[in-house]
Amino acid sequence: YSLLGSLRAVAQTISYEVSLALVLLSFIFLVGGFSLELFSLYQSKIWFIMISLPLALVWLASCLAETNRTPFDFAEGESELVSGFNTEYSSGGFALIFMAEYASILFMSMLFSLLFLGGNLLSVFFSLKLMI
């Protein structure tokens, strides 16, 4: 079961990273650099989510797929009633895998906030935007 789950997880990760890269590349062309400070400066007047709502929806769907959330949790086959690639893990390894998955969710939320909601790392409301 863990081999099937890992094959599903790798296929899903590769397929949805293409759309994430294309959305990120379009914003890099728009801003003209890789710096997150540039993203923050360009969004001081209007957020990018107002300009590019379809890209935000593609990014959100791809983030859900990358973090293996509910509609995209193919690696965990409910028909087999197992937990996918982490079937053979227990205790410490199992806890580390789940902590890494939730850290990935926080990181993707931070990127969404920085790219679309004008998140400044020094802003008071950055953590509130991150929770949305």
TrEMBL record:
Primary location class: mitochondrion
Reactions this protein catalyses: a ubiquinone + NADH + 5 H(+)(in) = a ubiquinol + NAD(+) + 4 H(+)(out)
EC numbers: 7.1.1.2
EC supergroup of this enzyme: translocase
Topology within the bilayer: Multi-pass membrane protein
GO molecular function, one term: NADH dehydrogenase (ubiquinone) activity
Keywords: Membrane, Mitochondrion, NAD, Transmembrane, Transmembrane helix, Transport, Ubiquinone
KW Metal-binding (keyword) present: no
A Pfam family this chain is assigned to: NADHdh
InterPro entries cross-referenced by the UniProt entry: NADH_UbQ_OxRdtase_su1/FPO, NADH_UbQ_OxRdtase_su1_CS
Intracellular or extracellular location(s): Mitochondrion inner membrane; Mitochondrion membrane
Annotated GO biological process: aerobic respiration
Transmembrane segments: 20-39, 46-65, 105-128
GO cellular component, one term: mitochondrial inner membrane
Family named by the database record: Belongs to the complex I subunit 1 family.
Function: Core subunit of the mitochondrial membrane respiratory chain NADH dehydrogenase (Complex I) that is believed to belong to the minimal assembly required for catalysis. Complex I functions in the transfer of electrons from NADH to the respiratory chain. The immediate electron acceptor for the enzyme is believed to be ubiquinone.
Designated name of the protein: NADH-ubiquinone oxidoreductase chain 1
Organism name: Paramunida spiniantennata
Gene: ND1
